Amino acid sequence: MQTVVGIRFKKAGKIYYFDPSNFVLSSGDHVIVETARGLEFGDVVIGPREVEEKDIIQPLKPVQRKATQEDEEKVQGNRQKQKTAFTICEQKIAVHGLPMNLVDVEYTFDVNKIIFYFTAEGRIDFRELVKDLASVFRTRIELRQIGVRDEAKMMGGIGCCGRSLCCATFLGDFEPVSIRMAKDQNLSLNPTKISGICGRLMCCLKYESNCYGSSSKKMTAPKVGLDVLTVSGDGKIVSVNPAKKTVRIAIAEGEFLELPWEEVVPKGEKPVI
User: Which of 30, 77, 208, 222 has the smallest count of CB within 10 Å of its CB?
Assistant: First the structure.
């Protein structure tokens, strides 16, 4: 076991483990750490805890120091520079006539590198653009092409549920989402109903997927369209809720019943007394 702290560099970004060294740290503290990109300013989101060696990517780098007031001011200054860099880069993209959409700009803490995030339909030859930007900012320039999901995460927005996007608020990593998950939950397969603002399947389809999967393994659910017998008369199953293990039945009078599926008796079979 080894003592670590979890540090995040972006809102809803991935959490990385670092050695707290001899510093007394708690969730909410700001720290300076060394990463592959150089010195970075991060937020402690997981306080000191014991973690098994197999869950740590070695070598575990130590926290350099707690962030000072000067560090805080430097970060604020970098954020202001990012706005200027964004405008300049958009102008340069227009000058070079490149079919790309600039999404975000990020300065490393030590201003050793500026990263420009963009989306595009295909591969872009941006070598001349990089040279142009390097002559303006006189530091290392990196242009990174991202996908539509990453774009939604960076831009943020409101989902069809009326809440802020999950990816922009708390999801650190994207997990695979399949159309099968929508089918298992009896959702409409209309792309406009199950797609997020990024145009991909909504991440929240994953949330209840395991519940539906485990329910179907423990007990086979009745099929939609099955004719059944009820105390109110003959009926037909119109929907199944694996999470609650219930079925919704349309009876002859045009009314609906919701019953536990173990109580459902297919038409032609005698109920167990």
Answer: 77
Mean pLDDT calculated for residue range 164-175: 90
Stronger pLDDT, 185 or 44, i.e. the higher one: 44
Quick one: angle between helices 69-96 and 127-137, nearest 10?
140
Per-residue pLDDT averaged across 244-273, rounded?
75
Residue 111 domain-assigned? Answer: yes
Domain count along the chain: 4
DSSP 116-156: EEEE-SS----HHHHHHHHHHH-SEEEEEE--HHHHHHHH-
Where is the domain boundary, 42, 67, 92? 67
The proportion of the chain whose per-residue pLDDT surpasses 90, expressed as a percent, equals 53
Is the overall model pTM greater than 0.90, yes or no? no
Give the domain extent around 102. 73-146
**What b/e readout covers 192-217, taking b as 16+ CB neighbours within 10 angstroms?**
eebebbbeebbbbbbeebeebeebee
Has residue 2 got a pLDDT over 70? yes
